[in-house]
Amino acid sequence: MxxxxxxxxxxxxxxxxxxxxxRWQEETEKLIYTCKTLKEWAKLNYVMKYEFAYYHYPSxxxxxxxxxxxxxxxxxxxxxxxxVLQDL
Length: 88
Hints:
Blueprint: E1 2-5, E2 11-14, H1 21-34, H2 38-54, H3 59-87
Antiparallel strand pairs: 1-2
Helix pairs in contact: 1-3, 2-3
């Protein structure tokens, strides 16, 4: 599946050929990094969990994307923490 945001901020997906896994992974990584809020991250994380639960992907792809999701979550949390501390 290929994920992208629609104009209303919802995550959309499309089926694709197995020959383009590398491009799909690259585009999914970009999508992860576009999450600017915890809410956006949570929506994408939910969709990714569903995707990996119901469709088979090579474990390297799943592991890599999971690590990137978790790393970006840490970045978002640190950013929020910095904003809160600056407001004090």
